[in-house]
Write a structure and sequence with these properties.
Blueprint: H1 8-25, H2 40-58, H3 60-67, H4 70-90, H5 106-113, H6 116-130, H7 133-141, H8 143-165, H9 176-186, H10 188-198, H11 206-210, H12 219-255
Helix pairs in contact: 1-2, 2-3, 2-4, 3-4, 4-8, 4-12, 6-8, 7-8, 9-12, 10-12
Length: about 270
């Protein structure tokens, strides 16, 4: 129940991810056009994102969420969609993915995939569909389906954070006022879905209704806690980033007075 999940495929994927990153920002950096040294803080941020994925996918959070507590599963989903992807993007230098844009049609495809409307709809539709009882129960019964769900979550979550944390000039972040609106809208789906789960009058996912009880938590209470985890922290992550973006935008405007406000001699 509280054991770690040392799935070799998950471990291999995380090791390859971190190893490839360290190789590219280290001994292979000279092979990337326009590359520059990467700060220790940026490297640590990327590795922290990888560590979050390791905790989400291999720690007891995984084993508890798979067969005992919906609330643990909800914590896992938040870690792999709202915490790890921003850290990975912030830790990625601007030049790392630039060679991929040399591939045919890579730039127009990248622009489509990182369009804010597409990223918003794609992530939230995927997240909502996989939380419907039929699909959710399928992930609990089948390891391959569960793995596919996690791949979709991580991929679409990375895309949904791209307009805010893009590491590439060619596929840039949207303007800060647009980021504020975008992040506010992103806070709504977890609020709505979390409220629906919290106030559901029946057990949505039968697996958790039949599961052995952990810490004396009833299935109904577990479901309510899970809904609140999606509802409150899920929305607060987006609103917290929105607050940072807003004050950065406000301070930038404050430091750059308009032409009309400048002394005549400076115009």
């Amino acid at each position: 129940m509280f054991g770690w999940n040392w799935d070799p495929l998950i471990l291999l994927g995380l090791v390859l991810q971190a190893g490839a990153y360290l190789a590219c920002v280290g001994p292979l950096r000279a092979r990337f056009p326009g590359s520059a040294p990467v700060s220790a803080a940026r490297v640590q941020t990327f590795l922290l994102g990888s560590l979050v994925l390791l905790i989400a996918l291999c720690s007891p959070i995984e084993t508890l969420g798979d067969g005992y507590l919906l609330s643990a599963h909800m914590v896992q989903h938040l870690l792999i969609t709202l915490i790890a992807p921003p850290l990975l993007l912030l830790g990625t230098p601007r030049w790392l993915f630039r060679p991929l844009l040399r591939l045919p049609l890579a730039l127009p495809i990248g622009r489509f995939l990182t369009n804010p409307l597409f990223t918003f709809l794609c992530f939230n539709l995927v997240f909502a569909v996989w939380h419907t009882p039929a699909y959710y129960e399928a992930t609990l019964r089948s390891a391959p389906v569960h793995a596919f769900e996690h791949v979709l979550f991580i991929t679409t979550a990375t895309l949904t954070w791209w307009p805010v944390f893009s590491p590439m000039d060619e596929l840039p972040r949207i303007a800060e006022p647009a980021q504020c609106l975008y992040l506010f809208l992103e806070s709504l789906p977890p609020t709505i879905l979390g409220a629906l789960i919290t106030f559901a009058g029946w057990i949505l996912y039968p697996t958790y209704g039949r599961a052995p009880r952990v810490w004396g938590i009833s299935p109904q209470l577990d479901q309510q806690i899970a809904g609140l985890i999606m509802w409150v922290p899920g929305a607060l992550v987006f609103l917290g980033v929105l607050t940072i973006v807003f004050f950065r935008w406000f301070n930038d405007d404050d430091r750059q007075p308009s032409q009309d406000m400048r002394p005549a001699g400076l115009q």
